[in-house]
Amino acid sequence: MIRMCTEGDFTTIHAVINDAAQAYKGIIPVDRWKEPYMSEDELRHEMAAGIVFWGYEDAGELIGVAGIQQVRDVALIRHAYVRSARRNQGIGSRMLSHLLELTRCPVLVGTWADATWAIRFYEGHGFKRLSTHEKDRVLRTYWSIPERQIETSVVLGDRRWFGSCE
Q1: What distances in angstroms separate CA 136 from CA 8, 75, 140, one per listed residue?
Q2: What is the domain extent for residue 145?
Q3: What pTM, to 2 d.p., does this model score?
Q4: Where residue 35 sits, what CATH number does that domain have?
Q5: Residue 98, domain member (yes or no)
Q6: Beta partners for 128?
């Protein structure tokens, strides 16, 4: 079941993100990795900035989370993670489909350039990579991230971003 997360889910959201983010260790630039990957303060800041988290619950346990954030004229998919032990079971796909149904706006998602599995996942769901120039522009426009993260990231857009109504 996919449901909107509540303040009572904060600790579990934090745990899911940090468990799943272990996949990035040794993959993303070493200067961008830290333990924990996301601190509680960082998560609180992201939620205060308007990210609404949705969770995938199975047998009463929250095993996947994904945020959506409305920024100006687009929706951003933010912090989408599935617990390590539950990957490759279609949970991420179901959550992404749910988030896409929540908005009529073009949707963008950013991820690490070296996270090839994440890029393949979004491309498999019809997202396309933005050019380097466009990626830099949208990261500076819609995200609040350090310059180094801009250098080491990619952005993908859904069909609405590219003006298609397929």
Answers
A1: 36, 17, 6
A2: 2-157
A3: 0.95
A4: 3.40.630.30
A5: yes
A6: 157
